[in-house]
Specification:
Length: 362
């Protein structure tokens, strides 16, 4: 469905150029020709994996060179912090948070509630009271430790069912089983109580493809946020993971309509885990890199032309290190090329696309 002009005008995040373009009856701001003043840069960042961070100085340097924002990739997950039930282990998170603070980088916290990356004891919780007690204590302790330092939290991660049209809308996790859909409220309410200044985000994947289930995922995300707001529980943004499958096409109209709806709710959008899953692309590296850059460009352009994200964060920086290698291996055994720097930390075409937003040229 093409975006209606009225909807665009209503979107709180509409840029001045878009409003001008709309007033002139043009399809997009691009039709106005080159902008006179460059738009403000969008903070750019990456997730950082602790083992690699410790082992590879080039990785640390890349974080310093390219990032405004750093996200501990795994060290704020329950699996890392709550390995032992009796004590909180912040060693990895503290190291990355300290590095970010010393170098003037902002931080995103990932994630206070997730159905995965749980230690065995948490998977074995069996009563509602136990789950609520543990969840509240966890969020109180973690958010309090980084109060005023971690500005933004992924409060809940992946709580929406993969295809909510198949008996959803919530994903089947230990939290959903023991607490029902209320687990989302408990998490947001607790985080807001402990750090009232923190920006609180609902983070999830696949909001960008053309399947009916994807449209439903967008609807469910908006619905969850609307309900929180109606109850007076703070929620500030929707995080789009954006692990983009190179073989699938983007639903540009659906994405833009999503941005309009996010704007109507007064929420921010953030791109939180951007990378390209290239397992089905041809082996040639140049072909893959061009396809990945073009996909990222179309995705970001669709979003930014309606609502500027608060941040654009990739899930790693260099192809040398990525979860895609293990999770989406290629049949031909060629190494995946999901990220903006190649395995030798040289910028790829994807970085040129990101630079436009990072430096405020788009
Ligand atoms: C991944 C990490 O990148 C891996 O290092 C880890 O082994 C598993 O988790 N969605 C998320 C992230 O929200 O937390 C996941 O990160 C990738 C998918």
């Amino acid at each position: 469905m093409p975006l209606r002009k009225r909807d665009r005008d209503n979107a709180a995040g509409l840029t001045r150029r878009d409003a001008l373009a709309a007033a002139a009856g043009l399809a997009s701001a691009a039709a106005l020709g080159p902008a006179l003043a460059a738009p403000a840069p969008i903070p750019f960042g990456s997730a950082a994996q602790i083992e690699t961070f410790r082992a590879d100085p080039r990785y640390r340097q890349a974080l310093l060179t390219y990032c405004d924002v750093i996200v501990p990739m795994n060290d704020l997950k329950w699996e890392a912090i709550r390995h032992d039930r009796s004590r909180f282990d912040f060693s990895g998170a503290d190291e990355l948070v300290g590095f970010a603070e010393r170098n003037g980088k902002a931080l995103r916290g990932h994630a206070l509630l997730w159905g995965e990356a749980l230690p065995p004891w948490a998977r074995e919780m069996s009563t509602r009271a136990e789950a609520e007690r543990e969840l509240v204590e966890h969020i109180e302790t973690v958010v309090d430790r980084y109060k005023g330092r971690i500005a933004t939290w992924d409060v809940v991660n992946e709580v929406i069912k993969f295809d909510p049209l198949e008996g959803g809308p919530m994903r089947d996790t230990i939290w959903q089983r023991l607490l029902g859909p209320e687990h989302v409220e408990i998490a947001f309410r607790t985080a807001a109580r402990v750090d009232p200044k923190a920006r609180l985000v609902l983070n999830d994947f696949n909001f960008e493809e053309g399947w009916p289930g994807t449209a439903e995922r967008r609807r469910v995300a908006l619905d969850i946020c609307r309900r929180l707001k109606d109850k007076g529980i703070p929620v500030h943004g929707i995080g789009m993971q954006a692990h983009l499958y190179a073989e699938n096409s983007l639903d540009i109209d659906g994405l833009q309509a999503f941005m309009v709806e996010i704007g109507k709710l007064g929420l921010d959008v953030e791109i939180t885990e951007l990378d390209v899953i290239d397992w089905k692309l041809p082996a040639d590296a140049g072909t893959r890199d061009r396809a990945a850059a073009s996909l990222v460009g179309s995705f970001l352009n669709a979003i930014v032309s309606v609502r500027r994200p608060k941040a654009i964060v990739t899930w790693g920086l260099s192809d040398r290190y990525s979860w895609i290698h293990d999770t989406f291996p290629r049949k031909d055994k060629a190494k995946a090329r999901p990220l903006p720097l190649d395995a030798d930390f040289k910028p790829k075409p994807m970085m040129a696309v990101l630079d436009r937003y990072r430096r405020g040229r788009a």
